[in-house]
Specification:
Blueprint lengths: L1 E10 L2 E7 L3 E5 L6 H12 L30 E8 L3 H6 L4 E5 L4 E2 L13 E14 L4 E8 L14 H7 L1 E4 L5 H4 L7 H8 L3 H13 L11 H13 L19 H7 L3 E7 L5 E5 L5 H19 L3 E5 L7 H14 L2 E5 L3 H4 L7 E7 L2 E6 L11 H14 L2 E5 L2 H17 L10 E5 L6 H10 L3 E6 L4 H10 L2 E4 L5 H8 L2 H13 L18 H14 L5 H6 L9 H15 L16
Helix pairs in contact: 5-9, 9-10, 14-15, 16-18, 17-18
InterPro entries: AAA_GajA/Old/RecF-like, Bact_Antivir_Def_Nuclease, P-loop_NTPase, TOPRIM_OLD
Protein name: AAA family ATPase
Pfam family, one: OLD-like_TOPRIM
């Protein structure tokens, strides 16, 4: 079983959205782009315990907080999920609600001929939905789940209940917010699900209650508590009949199943030894974050083995877990589930997925969509994993990307932005949410721009002086191109920086013993004329391209000493991101921020 299509309308930050999911996929994108909203929307439809939460919805679950329109009528939340890959047991259970899904067109078959359902690419499907609204009469929020086929004569649909949802086997593991509850015995916790699957609930709770009813608490007279309770009883009897408030005593809880579910806690050994030689145990919440996450994952694996046809949805498996464990988690969950859906910001997680399994999420003006990533230009599949973590991962995770022509610009522009921030009211690229991508050749700037544009990224590019043909291709491929007036970035530095800054940096290299030995004859000094100084420093920058020396140079400059091209480019990019300029270097319309 797997989710093939998800439609969302008016839920949280999503005004409308439609996604197609593969058997194994990871949702990526900038923070607050809608990844958690996607999983929460699926949980509203398929989560067995989700509707038992009160309230099911609140004011902030509606898009822009608008649950009533100007006319005072309700503005509903609608979510639709299409599930395919049904087992024989599931097909029998849902037999009255089966539709047919064409995997080639990613659509439901809506009419004759009936023979089309026999085609290889056509699968039985289950379409279910959730509707949530504000009930003006009750002054409360309500929600319901239902089958979307068939529709009754009166326009209503059959209820999609808790038992039906359990048949679907959807498991949603949030981030650490679930940790405190996953190992409890509350309704819907992971331990509770395991107990239900093993059919252990009824005898277990009765046995525990019987044991606790007989367990004495603080009855030793030396403690003084029993004496106080006896005094309370005597005082009460001066006001009420003797059979009232009789025999007060302590118990560990109120001895109800619901109370026990809340207070029973798993204890685990800490590794510390007590004086008597026994290992000290503490509540599981006192374990390390990574240990708790791993325990939760172990429970999920148990559930998958018990339920078989399971859909896993998991947020950020990388939290507090080392890279090798992240990889193991991905493969373990993928192997044990019919469908595995993740969100992540970890390169170690993302490199375990084929590009077709990486869904890049974007949202503009409330409209959400997901685009499957593909192999970046010039990257062969066998080199993909190596190149992905080194170059492309950060760009996939960010909403904005700055493409640099080569390594020198890749090092220099972030360094210059950080220096500007130190000196004035400027922002670094990290603060602006911009990832830097090294094209590694001027011929790759345009192809990478096209690739990132296909993923709905906002793209910037800095590059050397180009031929008219090359510049036209780059301008067409990126949102905001910035072309230097020099053919090489070293020339931008040498010809655009103040002579005082160049000499100061050069003398510092000599004093620190960092001047190249084979350039000893041209060692900079105060008597060297400006033309010779520029020549030797240009040679030094070129020969040390891979060492980040131009970045070091810019990091010691004052604003007035930096090349105007570097400063103006950084200021323009900040203005674009901050919304103070919308047409620097390009006439292309850029999607506004949500």
């Amino acid at each position: 079983m797997r989710i093939a299509r998800l439609k969302v309308k008016n839920f949280r930050g999503v005004k409308e959205g439609e996604l197609y999911l593969t058997e194994r996929c990871v949702l990526v994108g900038d923070n607050n782009i809608g990844k958690s909203t996607i999983l929460e929307s699926i949980d509203l439809v398929l989560g067995p315990e989700r509707l038992s939460k009160y309230p099911v919805l609140d004011e902030h679950d509606f898009y822009a907080g608008e649950y009533l329109n100007k006319e005072g009528t309700e503005r509903d939340i609608h979510i639709e999920v299409v599930v395919v890959g049904l087992s024989d047991e599931q097909t029998r259970h849902f037999r009255n609600h089966i539709e047919w899904w064409n995997t080639s067109t990613n659509n439901l078959i809506e009419g004759p001929p009936a023979s089309s359902t026999d085609e290889r690419q056509v699968l039985p499907a289950l379409r279910v939905g959730f509707s949530g609204a504000y009930d003006q009469e009750e002054d409360d929020f309500v929600g319901k789940t239902y089958y979307l086929s068939p529709q009754k004569d009166d326009g209503t649909f059959d209820v999609f209940g808790t038992k039906d949802k359990r048949m679907c086997g959807f498991l949603y593991l949030r981030t650490l917010r679930t940790g405190s509850r996953a190992l409890s015995l509350e309704k819907g916790s992971l331990l509770d699900i395991i107990l239900r699957l093993k059919e252990l609930n009824l005898p277990m709770w009765e046995d525990i209650l019987n044991q606790l009813r007989e367990l004495p608490v603080a009855e030793n007279p030396e403690l003084g508590i029993s004496e106080i309770l006896t005094s309370v009883q005597k005082t009460v009897r001066t006001y009420v009949p003797s059979d009232w408030a009789n025999n007060p005593h302590f118990r560990v809880s109120d001895l109800t199943r619901s109370n026990l579910r809340r207070i029973l806690t798993v204890f685990m050994g800490t590794g510390a030894k007590r004086e008597d030689g026994n290992e000290y145990a503490a509540p599981f919440q006192h374990q390390g974050t990574g240990t708790i996450n791993t325990l939760v994952l172990a429970l999920l694996s148990m559930i998958a083995e018990l339920k078989q046809n399971v859909i896993f949805a998991m947020e950020e498996p990388e939290i507090a877990i080392p890279p090798y464990t992240q990889k193991r988690i991905i493969h373990s969950i993928s192997r044990k589930s019919a469908q595995a859906i993740f969100t992540s910001h970890s390169p170690y997680v993302l490199e375990e997925f084929d590009p077709s399994e990486i869904l890049v999420i974007n949202r503009v003006n409330g409209k959400l969509k997901g685009v499957a990533a593909k192999y970046p230009p010039t990257i062969k599949p066998k080199k993909y994993r190596e190149e992905f973590r080194r170059r492309f991962c950060e760009a996939l995770l960010a909403r904005r990307v700055l493409i640099t022509e080569g390594r020198t610009e890749f090092d220099s522009f972030p360094a210059a932005a950080r220096r500007l921030q130190e000196l004035g009211e400027y922002k670094t690229f990290e603060e602006l949410g911009i990832a830097i991508l090294n094209a590694e050749a001027e011929s790759q700037v345009a192809p990478l721009g096209e690739y990132l544009q296909s993923l709905d990224k906002i793209t910037f590019a800095v590059f050397d002086k180009q031929t008219e043909e090359s510049k036209t291709a780059i301008v067409k491929a990126v949102n905001f191109p910035f072309e230097a007036n020099e053919k090489g970035f070293e020339d931008v530095i040498i010809n655009g920086s103040s002579p005082e800054a160049i000499l100061r940096y050069a003398k510092g290299l000599v004093e620190n013993g960092e001047w190249l030995s084979h350039m000893k004859a041209n060692e900079p000094n105060d008597q060297m004329d400006l033309g010779q100084l520029k020549t030797v420093m240009r040679e030094f920058f070129v020969k040390n391209k891979a060492s980040g020396v131009t970045a070091d140079f810019l990091g010691q400059c004052e604003i007035s000493e930096m090349p105007s091209f570097v400063v103006e480019t950084i200021v323009s990019i900040q203005s674009i991101v901050d919304g103070r300029s919308d047409s620097v270097g390009s006439d292309r319309e850029v999607p506004p921020e949500d």
